[in-house]
Write a structure and sequence with these properties.
Structural class: alpha/beta
Shape: globular
Order of helices and strands: HEEEHEHEHEHEEEEHHEH
Number of helices: 8
Strand order of the largest sheet: 5-4-1-6-10-7-11
Length: 248
């Protein structure tokens, strides 16, 4: 969209550009084999989602945080906040029937904002760090987009029917979140009709006609999906706690 690209080019922002985050937490506990949604499962004594929100507050304490939850899970979240005395300021928004609709609802909560950089992040990725956030927000401010991704560690094969074929893994990346965008760009991209191709925010913006910039992520930035991931999460938190004590 040339007119929007021209607008973005004319308004390359200073480092103090306002930042926002939309945290999407619509998962269930099916693959986690849990009785509750995975975003509410405890790690180090607190729900996963609280750890995730704290990462963004630690990066920018002034950042408006929008949390998107299924309508049925909002009372559970409010109860957990009361139980854990979790008072961090954030706005809770009801999700939709798809990730596309949920992010769109999150964007609607920022209707009063004209410009800035917004990150869309999985609520069950509680190990995003300041270095990655800084790179992603800065790159999106300059180029309009910044999608966090990592190289593949293992060999991959393309499967078609009953056959498989080795492919060059260096030509592929594993996409993570956050995915950061200039707010006007993401807002206009989400004005498009939803189609099955939209598996993440990058696919929505790419369909709108804007190039996607990749920035380096981390294998610590895991998405908690299976029971094994919880074991890793506890180990990461213990490592961080030990590192903090050693630095005192």
């Amino acid at each position: 969209m040339p007119h929007l690209n021209a607008y973005l080019a004319l308004t390359m922002l200073s480092p103090d550009l306002k930042k926002y985050a939309i945290i999407v937490a619509g998962g269930s506990g099916s693959r986690m084999q849990a009785a509750m949604p995975k975003q509410f499962l405890p790690i180090a004594g607190e729900p996963v989602l609280m750890h995730t929100l704290r990462r963004f507050q630690a990066f920018d304490p002034e950042m408006p945080l929008v949390l998107v939850l299924p309508e049925a899970e909002i009372p559970t979240w409010r109860r957990l906040c009361a139980e854990h005395q979790f008072t961090m300021e954030h706005q809770v928004v009801m999700g939709g029937n798809s990730r596309f609709q949920s992010v769109k609802n999150g964007l609607a909560a920022l209707d009063g904002e004209e410009d800035g950089v917004v990150a869309v992040h999985d609520g069950v990725r509680p190990f995003i760090d300041n270095a990655i956030l800084n790179t992603a927000y800065t790159t999106a401010a300059q180029k309009g987009t910044a999608v966090v991704a990592v190289s593949l560690k293992e060999s991959i094969r393309r499967v078609r029917g009953g056959n498989s074929k080795a492919v060059d893994r260096t030509a592929y990346r594993l996409v993570q979140t956050p995915q950061c965008f200039r707010l006007p760009l993401l807002r206009r991209a989400y004005a498009q009709p939803e189609i099955p191709l939209f598996t993440d925010d990058a696919s929505v913006v790419e369909r709108f006609g804007h190039k996607i910039e990749l920035v380096e992520g981390s294998f610590r930035n895991i998405k908690l999906t299976t029971p094994e991931d919880l074991v890793l999460a506890e180990a990461f938190l213990l490592q961080e706690a030990n590192g903090a004590q050693a630095g005192q």
